[in-house]
Amino acid sequence: MQPAAFTKKRKLKFAVFEPYILLIPSMVIVIILILWPITRTFSYSLMSYSPIKPNKIGFIGFENFRNLLRDDKFMRSLSVSATYASMTVALQFIFGFALALLMRNMKRIRGFFRAAVFAPWAVSGVLTAIIWKMIFDGSFGVVNDLLLRIGLINKVIPFGTTKFTRS
């Protein structure tokens, strides 16, 4: 039988390495699904390949990158993409920050505005489109029903169609 001090020391050593041992399966998955394809893609970018001659593949180093950086169309598209990305991120940040500041100071209708702001984020776009289509449906839509009940219209309005009949 082993002394108690020996088993405590052994458990202590295992406790130090236990988190790392438990990370091994997830790290293997990350390596297989993310790092391996990135490595293979980078290695392919260093090769010469032609779809006309698929068997003739050769190592050319960074020549593909040099050609890409010399291409005016690529540099123009990179500039347009960077401008678009930076502008949209900046505008979204400013708009979101302003909306957050407005919502912070609201007392009575804070819950309504929180729901109105976070509902599109929480509900998928497809579901939102289906709901709006049902609300404005010409046969059984809520908008037409409400407008008919309060007497603003006499006939249903075919929302979402290109043919409107005038009477």
Distance between the termini: 100 Å
Roughly what fraction of the amino acids lie in strands? under 5%
Shape: extended
Question: Radius of gyration in whole Å, from Cα?
Answer: 31 Å
Instruction: Find the count of extended strands (DSSP E, 2+ residues).
Output: 2
Query: What is the string of helix and strand elements?
Result: HEEHHHHH
Given the helix and strand composition, which structural class is it?
mainly alpha
Q: Segments where pLDDT lies below 50 for 5+ residues?
A: none
Mean pLDDT, all residues: 85
Quick structural overview:
The protein has six helices and two strands. It is mainly alpha-helical and 167 residues long.
Can you walk through the features of this model?
The protein has 167 residues and is an all-alpha fold. Among the domains are: 1-70, no CATH class; 123-167, no CATH class. Helix content is 70%, strand content 2%. It has helices spanning 4-45, 63-70, 72-105, 110-122, 125-135, 142-150, and strands at 47-48, 58-59. A two-stranded antiparallel sheet has the order 1-2. The chain is extended. The relative contact order is 0.03. The mean pLDDT is 85.
